């Protein structure tokens, strides 16, 4: 009851002589501070909107141009070539304005027009510069004169201190590759996978497609590239993610781990307090436009959809690499993105709690967040009926969840509680077991990865943009819904959060968050549910991704890693008669080929997104293409991706080698395939995350990991003095830390 009294803002009593009103000064103060904060945020957003709108110029540059024009009036020089006089002659109501005022207004109007013209000229010049990608094809460590000149020009035209969306108007559009180039690269990619008869069949299908339907489909795609900001991204989000009806758990969501070797504190509530506070700092920078574009990372939820009755394209398998489509009545999920959410929802032992993130117009301090989370950990109340596994709804097929959401969660306390979850800044799970890397337990990372990928299937809200997961030993991790963005976006935030947690916020000697403990905060609020019995008991090729973020709204492209050069190298490694010098030469040839394919994918000349969009156009037009149907139905038994490291350079990993992240992973695409995520940490450590399904007798993640480790050691052995005089230069790049593998 004490908390209830503290929450009362005012009291009034009706007396015979009138009404007695008592106001709480603390509440009035908080209301005032909240208002001040809101107006400050609006002012900052307004200022940043102006700065972004005139970038790469600055508002002060307008004043300089105006002063220059005004000065020209006094020295009787007309840089406008008569345009100022023309403006003066056409001013409205000029008969009521003095001649001197007319001259001043005309000069200001001309200066403003000239200033806007110069801004657009700078933007298009910068866009032209950013369309140059020759630098990415140059050898590592070398820079041509043309690239040096280009880099200098980019620096000159980029202005100073760009904000969140400063470069949006200057980023080039993703180009549509030519059909001939895409088909040529596609045939080259499947050559090592097919025998001669199969390859000839595929080649005939490709030639028939190129000579018959390709030109029509390409025209529509080029038209879309002119009209939209990116000819791939909207269709990729809609058809690969939001229209998929399979469970997003494992099939789509991915995870990111904590620091590999170090845990700043073993107090669960304290670690969660620092990390949540660091995330709030990050969100504030994002709202103020002080970060690179991070899209919809906070306040975002994927909302399940039901059949619309429209017959459109439906992906039969949901993943980052689709396999096939069919024309069925199609439901679609939607991505709900809100602004300025002031709470998060916490799950612990089957209960859901709402925690407010602000007090008195400011973020809760780490010590205050620790207090709130510790209160939840100390709460011994039992889950309500069916509450324990309620979140499993988000782990299953999308249509049953969408129907249940409409039927059981559209009114009353269920709607209020669901709205609290879906509108929260993010979702936090206070787990009830420890996880993390234990050198004495070779299976520790396996358990950690499984917990982050799917947990118990009912202790994560998989629809949220991300779930922050806190373990009893202080370890953390993130599970991410994939439709709204790709892994580098979350990786960028996670680097910032870990660096802020360890190097700025820190902990006391006892492991608590620094700062005074504020016990006067209102306790977290339990969300209430009313679940009926009828809802209960029923829910129980090689792909490697690259980024296309050099283009506006760019996301990913596929690199088909299994090349003829790679096959030749592998066969040489298995051939006892081949010499190490021959193997090394083939390795370098395969590496050069792979690197060039990666560069092509990054610069808009990839294969698969182009073919995917051509297929979408063919379905809209009702055009049947055996070639595209065959391409889109190819199974990806090995799906790989990497998590970028050191995007922000906040931590020098050479100076602090224990402050390295373990990367993250995702589920396999094919039922009989592998999902492999890897992270290259500096020069001496590579971590692999390997997933496969228990239902497949042909896959074994541990066995596959052992093969990867042995293969890397075999490659390392090639770099010996007798095989290559460049041993010192190259060995460091493939050397495993202390000769051990981390899998």
UniProtKB/TrEMBL annotation:
Keywords: Acyltransferase, Fatty acid metabolism, Lipid metabolism, Membrane, Mitochondrion, Mitochondrion outer membrane, Transferase, Transmembrane, Transmembrane helix, Transport
Transmembrane portions of the chain: 50-77, 97-122
Membrane-related topology note: Multi-pass membrane protein
Gene Ontology CC annotations of this record: mitochondrial outer membrane
Pathway assigned in UniProt: Lipid metabolism; fatty acid beta-oxidation
The keyword Iron is annotated on this UniProt entry: no
Pfam families per record: Carn_acyltransf (PF00755), CPT_N (PF16484)
Classification via InterPro entries: Carn_acyl_trans, Carn_acyl_trans_N, CAT-like_dom_sf, Cho/carn_acyl_trans, Cho/carn_acyl_trans_2, CPT_N
Active site annotation, chain numbering: 482 (proton acceptor)
EC number: 2.3.1.21
Gene Ontology molecular-function annotations: carnitine O-palmitoyltransferase activity
Enzyme class: transferase
Top-level taxon of origin: Eukaryota
Major site of localization recorded for this protein: mitochondrion
Residues annotated as domain Carnitine O-palmitoyltransferase N-terminal: 1-47
Reactions catalysed: (R)-carnitine + hexadecanoyl-CoA = O-hexadecanoyl-(R)-carnitine + CoA; 4,8-dimethylnonanoyl-CoA + (R)-carnitine = O-4,8-dimethylnonanoyl-(R)-carnitine + CoA
One annotated GO biological process: fatty acid beta-oxidation
Domain called Choline/carnitine acyltransferase: residue spans: 174-535
Subcellular location(s) per record: Mitochondrion outer membrane
Family statement drawn from the similarity comment of this UniProt entry: Belongs to the carnitine/choline acetyltransferase family.
Function: Catalyzes the transfer of the acyl group of long-chain fatty acid-CoA conjugates onto carnitine, an essential step for the mitochondrial uptake of long-chain fatty acids and their subsequent beta-oxidation in the mitochondrion.
PANTHER family: CARNITINE O-ACYLTRANSFERASE (PTHR22589), CARNITINE O-PALMITOYLTRANSFERASE 1, MUSCLE ISOFORM (PTHR22589:SF69)
Name of the protein described by the UniProt record: Carnitine O-palmitoyltransferase 1, muscle isoform
Biological source species: Etheostoma spectabile
């Amino acid at each position: 009851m004490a908390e209830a009294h503290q929450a009362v803002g005012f009291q009034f009593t009706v007396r015979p002589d009138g009404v007695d009103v008592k106001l709480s000064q603390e509440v009035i103060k908080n209301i005032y501070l909240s208002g001040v904060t809101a107006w400050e945020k609006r002012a900052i957003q307004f200022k940043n909107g102006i700065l972004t709108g005139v970038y790469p110029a600055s508002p002060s540059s307008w004043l300089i141009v105006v002063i220059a024009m005004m000065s020209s009036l006094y020295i009787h020089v007309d840089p406008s070539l008569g345009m100022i006089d023309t403006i003066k002659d056409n001013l409205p109501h000029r008969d009521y304005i003095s001649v001197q005022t007319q001259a001043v207004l005309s000069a200001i109007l001309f200066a403003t027009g000239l200033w806007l013209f110069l801004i657009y000229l700078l933007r298009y010049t910068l866009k032209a510069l950013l369309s140059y990608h020759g630098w990415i094809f140059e050898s590592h460590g070398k820079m041509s004169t043309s690239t040096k000149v280009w880099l200098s020009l980019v620096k000159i035209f980029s202005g100073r201190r760009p904000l969140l969306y400063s470069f949006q108007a200057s980023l080039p559009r993703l180009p549509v590759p030519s059909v001939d180039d895409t088909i040529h690269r596609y045939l080259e990619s499947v050559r090592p996978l097919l025998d001669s008869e199969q390859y000839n069949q595929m080649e005939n299908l490709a030639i028939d497609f190129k000579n018959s339907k390709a030109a029509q489909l390409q025209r529509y795609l080029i038209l879309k590239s002119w009209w939209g900001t990116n000819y791939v991204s909207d269709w990729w989000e809609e058809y690969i993610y939001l229209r998929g009806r399979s469970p997003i758990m494992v099939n789509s969501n991915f995870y990111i781990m904590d620091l590999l070797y170090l845990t700043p504190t073993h107090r669960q509530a304290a670690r969660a307090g620092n990390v949540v506070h660091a995330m709030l700092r990050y969100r504030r920078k994002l709202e103020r436009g002080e970060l690179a574009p991070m899209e919809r990372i906070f306040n975002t939820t994927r909302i399940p959809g039901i059949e619309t009755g429209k017959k459109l394209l439906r992906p039969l398998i949901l993943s980052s690499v689709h396999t096939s489509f069919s024309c069925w009545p199609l439901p679609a999920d939607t991505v709900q993105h809100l602004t300025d959410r002031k709470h998060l929802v916490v799950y612990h032992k089957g209960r859901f709690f709402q925690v407010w993130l602000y007090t008195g117009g400011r973020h809760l301090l780490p010590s205050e967040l620790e207090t709130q989370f510790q209160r939840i950990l100390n709460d011994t109340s039992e889950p309500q009926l069916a509450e324990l596994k309620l979140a499993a709804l988000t782990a299953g097929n999308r249509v049953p969840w969408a129907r249940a959401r409409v039927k059981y969660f559209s009114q009353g306390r269920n709607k209020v509680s669901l709205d609290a979850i879906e509108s929260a800044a993010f979702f936090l799970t206070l787990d009830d077991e420890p996880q993390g890397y234990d050198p004495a337990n070779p299976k520790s990372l396996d358990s950690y990865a499984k917990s982050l990928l799917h947990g118990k299937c009912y202790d994560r809200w998989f629809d949220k943009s991300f779930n922050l997961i806190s373990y009893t030993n202080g370890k953390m991790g993130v599970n991410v819904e994939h439709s709204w963005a790709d892994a580098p976006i979350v990786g960028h935030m996670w680097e910032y959060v870990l660096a802020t947690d360890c190097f700025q916020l820190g902990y006391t000697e006892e492991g608590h968050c620094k700062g005074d403990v504020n016990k006067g905060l209102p306790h977290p609020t339990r969300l209430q549910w009313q679940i009926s019995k009828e809802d209960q008991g029923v829910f129980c090729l090689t792909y490697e991704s690259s980024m296309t973020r050099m283009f506006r709204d760019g996301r990913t492209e596929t690199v088909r890693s299994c090349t003829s050069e790679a096959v030749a190298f592998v066969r040489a490694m298995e051939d006892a008669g081949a010499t190490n010098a021959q193997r090394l030469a083939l390795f370098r040839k395969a590496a050069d080929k792979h690197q060039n394919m990666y560069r092509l994918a990054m610069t808009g000349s990839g294969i698969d997104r182009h073919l995917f969009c051509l297929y979408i156009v063919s379905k809209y037009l009702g055009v049947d293409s055996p070639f595209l149907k065959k391409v889109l139905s190819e199974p990806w038994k090995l799906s790989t991706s990497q998590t970028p490291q050191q995007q922000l350079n906040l931590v020098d990993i050479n100076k602090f080698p224990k402050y390295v992240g373990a990367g993250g992973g995702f589920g396999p695409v094919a039922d009989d395939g592998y999902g492999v995520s890897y992270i290259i940490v500096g020069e001496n450590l590579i971590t692999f995350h390997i997933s496969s399904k228990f239902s497949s007798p042909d896959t074994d993640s541990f066995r596959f990991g052992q093969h990867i480790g042995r293969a890397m050691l075999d490659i390392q052995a090639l770099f010996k003095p007798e095989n290559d005089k460049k041993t010192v230069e190259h060995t460091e790049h493939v050397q495993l830390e202390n000769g051990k593998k981390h899998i």
